[in-house]
Structure formats: structure tokens, C-alpha cells
Amino acid sequence: MRVPRHQSSSLKCFDYQTDWDLFSDVLEPRVPEWCRRRNVKREINEVRRYEFHTDNQLPMHHALYDALGNRYAFRSEVALTNEFEFNS
């Protein structure tokens, strides 16, 4: 994984802990310090996510389509009030 030179860190968003666990397993033995994580499950509007899948006729529980649906349904007004989650 590469971080562009103009950035000092990279934020990885996920909606299920298992997603992060799988990602971090690939980076064994340890996730680099510049790689920050954030669980955004509480910031996803489930109605909007469902709308995204049905409006675009995309199946649910497909990693790429779920990520696009989460991006569409992400509620930024909530995100502005929450701190990043850092776990060791």
C-alpha cells in the first residue's frame, strides 16, 4: 500500500469489524502507523443505501457495490461531529 507523498496518513473506512480484521491480517505483522481506521457503520443511512442498490439494480452483499452504496448513504453531518476511532 502506498501513501501519496503529500499525505502523512491514510484513513480506511469500514462498516463491519470483520472487514478491518481481514484488511489488517493482510498487513501482518502490524498495520503501519500512517494507516488510520474508522468504523462508519453508525453514519450510514440504511434507507439511502437500500435506495442506491434498488435504483441502480445492483445486488447487495457484493463488496464493490456495498462500498459504493455506503459512500452514497454516508451522512456527513454525523461525521463532522464524531472523532476518528483509533484502536491498537
Keywords:
2 strands; 88 residues; alpha+beta; 4 helices
Describe the protein.
With 88 residues, the chain is of the alpha+beta class. The protein has one domain. Helices cover 40% and strands 11% of the residues. It is built from 4 helices and 2 strands, in the order βαβααα. It has helices at 17-26, 46-55, 63-73, 76-79, and strands spanning 10-14, 35-39. The chain has a two-stranded parallel sheet with strand order 1-2. The longest helix is centred in the last third of the chain and has 11 residues, at 63-73. It starts with 9 loop residues before the first strand and ends in a 9-residue tail after the last helix. 10% of the residues are buried. The model is unreliable at 79-84 (pLDDT under 50).
How does the SSE layout of this entry go?
Elements: E1 10-14, H1 17-26, E2 35-39, H2 46-55, H3 63-73, H4 76-79
Parallel strand pairs: 1-2
